[in-house]
Design brief:
With about 475 residues, the chain is α/β, with parallel strands linked by helices. Helix content is about 40%, strand content about 25%. The model has no long low-confidence stretch (mean pLDDT about 95). The chain binds NADPH dihydro-nicotinamide-adenine-dinucleotide phosphate.
């Protein structure tokens, strides 16, 4: 058994009371590593260290802070192949997706490195003569970060980079399914010119260390990405302390395919939106709302293309879709396949467990046809390589169907009509809208977030992140009269 990789707390690598194994979902015989779990006392140490470090960090000069973020970003980009392999090995996404995610994570850091030099305030006139008003942003303080397994590097990066850029300290609990990427990012941060305790890695279970972090009165803010039930619990835990919250949770994103759309574009965007990351994305295209004028041709082409997808080991050449992340997630997916059929949808292809040379959590990508928007498979987030085709008679019906959900993260339309595209952009009730593009795969310099049950609190990414990671201060100065 390899030595356990440790938590990074108060500037030191610490062993904890127990350990977990990190096995590849592509091959459960492949043990990537063993990782320690933090104790509640160690979490407390991390929180106290973060408080002390935050004051020191906020007082650093801008260029010194900027250099730290640039170094982290540049190292991530330079090591994208190596760290992408680690990410793909532990999470299961194909090598190209893992590499791309690590590179993108680096870009989050270099983008926020630049933002450090762009933290401008405002000076305005007071309604009172002789008084000057300044409005500026200050760090919120100590930020708790709880991240999920589906983007093991990018989600932590888009939370930790702005947290640091705006002058905060971080206590970070990553998902226990993907400790390798978390440890690698913490290791890069540990070599930077930062105060001890500025970023603390506290690997541990969600119900234990995660819950304790959410409940702690020692954090000023909590940023979370994951499931709605856990999000609700975090909100309840945060409320007694009035902890500032930012949460990204599930969704049920729809891609509307119009009769005037390009069929090849529609199929290509669907395959990307529905099956990249094995469909385990909060922006996945899990409802395909298809105009009757293009329905049959679209379904035929989509089903053929889906059947042709190569499912395999994340690190194998040619793999287009890797395994599902875990046995329990695979079990849930297969249950949804049964439920969907039981409620009247027809499985046109896929949706079955696959046996491979390596024992892993493989399933074939599946397409339901003859689905309706009131079926449970159309209303709940499945987080699976499954998508539902819902036939509609008009653009108006398509738009109404897209909006008929309690979620509201992302939506898209495939159309060659400028008028329909413009109308859709105005009327889709989601935080992100795409035209002739997949519903997932966003830029890093613009806001990301949703409506309804999908998100809670201020947007992530781009300059919008300042809203969550800072607090505003308004100062009034009586200028007086010169002698
Ligand atoms: P969870 O919401 O359980 O996990 C997300 C993070 O929260 C993990 O770090 C987890 O830790 C932690 N966590 C779990 N329980 C608690 C708790 N009580 N208090 C504080 N933190 C906690 O997601 P799952 O991994 O179980 O995935 C289940 C479903 O969630 C998916 O099928 C999908 O529908 C949705 N999901 C959505 C994501 C998104 O991007 N919007 C991302 C991931 C999941 P740990 O895992 O170590 O126990």
């Amino acid at each position: 058994m390899p030595d356990a990789k440790r938590n990074f707390i108060a500037g030191e690598w610490l062993e904890g009371p127990d350990t977990i194994e990190n096995r590849s979902p592509s091959d459960i015989g492949d043990l990537e590593g063993v990782y320690t779990q933090a104790s509640p006392e160690q979490l407390d140490t991390a929180l106290d260290a973060a408080r002390a470090a935050q004051a020191e960090w906020a007082a650093y000069g801008l260029e010194r802070k900027q250099a730290v973020l640039m170094n982290i970003g540049n190292e991530l980009m330079a090591r994208a192949d190596e760290l992408g392999e680690l990410l793909s090995r532990e999470e299961g996404k194909p090598r190209a997706e893992g590499r791309g995610e690590v590179y993108r994570s680096g870009q989050h850091f270099t983008y926020y490195a630049a933002e450090i030099l762009r933290q401008l305030g405002q000076t305005v006139q007071s309604v009172r003569p002789g008084v000057e008003v300044d409005i500026k942003r200050e760090p919120v303080g100590v930020v708790g970060v709880i991240s999920p397994w589906n983007f093991p590097m990018a989600i932590p990066a888009w939370k930790i980079a702005p947290a640091l850029a705006y002058g905060n300290a971080v206590v970070w609990k990553p998902a226990n399914l993907v400790p390798g990427s978390a440890h690698a990012l913490a290791e890069i941060i540990s070599r930077q010119d930062v105060p001890d305790g500025l970023v603390n890695l506290v690997m541990g279970s969600g119900g234990g260390i995660g819950q304790a972090l959410a409940e702690s009165a020692k954090i000023d803010a909590m940023t979370f990405t994951g499931s709605i039930p856990v999000g609700r619990g975090i909100a309840a835990a945060a409320l007694p302390n009035m902890t500032k919250l930012q949460m990204e949770m599930g969704s049920k994103n729809a891609l509307a395919v119009m009769d005037d759309g390009d069929l090849d574009v529609a199929v290509a965007m669907t395959l990307n939106g529905a099956f990249s990351g094995t469909g385990q994305k909060c922006t996945a295209s899990s409802r395909l709302v298809v105009h009757q004028g293009i329905h049959d041709a679209f379904v035929e082409k989509l089903v053929d293309a889906t059947k042709a997808m190569k499912v395999g080991h994340a690190l194998e050449e040619g793999t287009q879709m890797g395994p599902v992340v875990s046995e329990s997630q695979l079990g849930e997916n297969l249950d949804w396949v049964e439920k969907g059929q039981a409620e009247g949808a027809e499985l046109a292809c896929g949706g079955a467990r696959l046996n491979m040379p390596h024992e892993g959590y493989y399933m074939s990508p599946g397409v339901f046809v003859n689905a309706t928007n009131d079926m449970a498979i159309s209303r709940e987030e499945l987080f699976a390589p499954l998508t539902n085709v819902i036939k509609v008679g008009s653009y108006e019906e398509a738009l109404a169907t897209v909006n008929d959900t309690r979620f509201g993260l992302s939506s898209g339309i495939i159309t060659s009509s400028l008028a329909r595209a413009a109308h859709f952009k105005q009327n889709a009730r989601t935080g992100v809208v795409t035209v002739n593009l997949p519903t997932g795969g966003m830029d890093y310099h613009v806001p990301f977030g949703g409506r309804g049950d999908s998100s809670y609190g201020p947007r992530e990414q781009g300059q919008a992140a300042a809203e969550f990671f800072t607090t505003m201060k308004t100062t009034y100065t009586a200028a007086g009269t010169p002698e």
